[in-house]
Amino acid sequence: MKKLINSPETLVNEMLEGLVKAYPNKLKRVEGFDVIIRNDDIKKDKVALVSGGGSGHEPAHAGYVGYGMLDAAVAGAVFTSPTPDQVYQAIKSSNANKGVLLIIKNYTGDILNFEMAQDMASMEGIEVDSVVVNDDVAVEDSLYTAGRRGVAGTVFVHKIAGAKAEMGASLQEVKNTALKVIKNVRTMGMAISPCIVPVAGKSNFSLNEDEMEIGIGIHGEPGVYRDKLKPVDQIVDTLTDKILNDIQINKDEQVAVMINGMGATPEMELLVINNHLNDILTNKGIKIYKTFVGNFMTSIEMGGFSISILKLDDELKQLLDHKADTPGLKVF
Prior knowledge:
One of its GO terms (molecular function) is glycerone kinase activity. Residues 7-329 form the DhaK domain. Its EC number is 2.7.1.-. Keywords: ATP-binding, Kinase, Nucleotide-binding, Transferase. InterPro entries: DhaK_1, DhaK_dom, Dihydroxyacetone_Kinase. The chain is α/β, with parallel strands linked by helices. It has two domains: 11-183, Rossmann fold; 184-331, Dihydroxyacetone kinase, domain 2 (Hypothetical Protein Tm841, Chain: A,domain 3, 2-Layer Sandwich). The protein is 31% helix and 26% strand. The protein is built from eight helices and 14 strands. A six-stranded mixed sheet has the order 1-2-4-3-5-6, with helices on both faces. It has a six-stranded mixed sheet with strand order 9-8-7-12-10-11. A two-stranded antiparallel ribbon has the order 13-14. α2 crosses α3 (108-123), α4 (154-166) runs antiparallel to α5 (171-184) and α6 (232-244) packs across α7 (267-283). The longest helix has 17 residues, at 267-283.
């Protein structure tokens, strides 16, 4: 195992320290906790957005802390849910007297720990609500979930709910907007190489040079099925068909698309993927309003990608265009 780290035990701490040192005017760390919060003037009377999960998905989630997106993010160990006390500190530190919305990916550990933290904060009089993201169309139940997994579509929830909060909406209004995104976003992913969790020192699966996994998650788990590696246009066809069979998008409707690298996929290849996805949607009469290409929710150094498609209406388009200024995503 080759990793550019000092030790698995210090990895998350040193990563978070490096992040706040890279953006000292925008981010700060809650002392004694693996929690990153905004270092600008957090608006009072603004709904705060909190998310997080296991580390290894960078820039998610701490990279989305900043204007127009999250107010706080909590980092667990690699692929391990953060503890309730860490999540509680994120809630407490970001609360701006208008309530806190937790954005939780649908993994059993995340849901349990975030809900415990929500109860802890509620007992202190903080108004807290939550939404669960389950955008992955690959699988209904998995090693980590009951129901569908929350994956890269979560970034759209951060972006759009974050914009709604910046506009001064109430907690219920921000929650309703987040739920609208969750209802209208779908994701499907694949891998050509696995990742290695530092403390484990080995991958959860192995692939021959001529093999790929279809329907992978973001925690190093294998896909729904294994197939022979094909030209990437055929892979994009497979993933897109699965998404479009799960959500009805009519001719002339508008969408946002996200081509998300899993950590080790060159931008060159992501752009080739986007080229064919654009052709598929255009040929179906589906109009692409906005495209995002890059690493948005990774799985350490996994080779592969996911496609997310978000069906838009006028409100979602306006919120998607709203300014965001975070290390991981900027919209101006």
